[in-house]
User: Which sequence fits this backbone?
């Protein structure tokens, strides 16, 4: 391509210019399997649970006040206060994050899936391999948006990773024995 003074993209005076993309037209992050990652969360968990009539607005306010004084997540506080059960919180988080929910137990986890991820890695990322489908390992985790963890899981397992959200309360040791 020859330089043309009328074409600003080839003009030498722009050689050191930094071009910043417009945030509105910024390209979306794409996972390795070419599926776009979820860039935004849905509505807040509390709002979802109030809308579903799992909580009252007063219960949500009380839980949020308690959350300000602690380092715990809202879902944990709602369960501690008895305002919501684990299934309601899990379903609300699933809606918020756009990730399917699962309950981890010996019926939902296959031995084949367990064999593809070491216990050390599973514990490190609070993730449990549930099922292997073709070249994909389905993993349940309490934090399905942790991209570093998903990359490390993909590398450790040698498969693409598909996530489902689960509660933090599952017992990895009982599944591995």
Assistant:
């Amino acid at each position: 391509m020859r330089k043309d003074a009328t074409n600003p993209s080839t003009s030498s005076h722009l050689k050191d210019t930094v071009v910043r993309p417009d945030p509105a037209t910024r390209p979306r992050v794409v996972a390795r399997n070419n599926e776009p990652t979820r860039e935004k969360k849905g509505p807040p968990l509390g709002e979802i649970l109030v809308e579903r009539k799992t909580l009252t607005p007063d219960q949500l306010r009380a839980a949020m006040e308690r959350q300000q004084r602690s380092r715990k997540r809202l879902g944990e506080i709602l369960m501690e206060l008895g305002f919501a059960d684990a299934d309601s919180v899990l379903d609300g988080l699933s809606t918020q994050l756009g990730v399917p929910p699962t309950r981890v137990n010996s019926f939902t986890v296959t031995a084949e899936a367990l064999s593809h991820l070491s216990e050390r890695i599973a514990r490190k990322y609070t993730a449990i391999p549930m099922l292997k489908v073709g070249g994909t390992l389905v993993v349940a985790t309490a934090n399905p948006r942790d991209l570093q963890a998903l990359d490390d899981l993909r590398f450790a397992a040698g498969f693409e990773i598909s996530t489902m959200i689960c509660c933090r309360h599952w017992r990895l040791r009982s599944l591995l024995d």
The first strand starts at residue 127 and ends at 133. DSSP finds eight helices and three strands in the chain. Confidence is low (pLDDT under 50) at residues 1-39. The beta strands are 127-133, 136-141, 160-165.
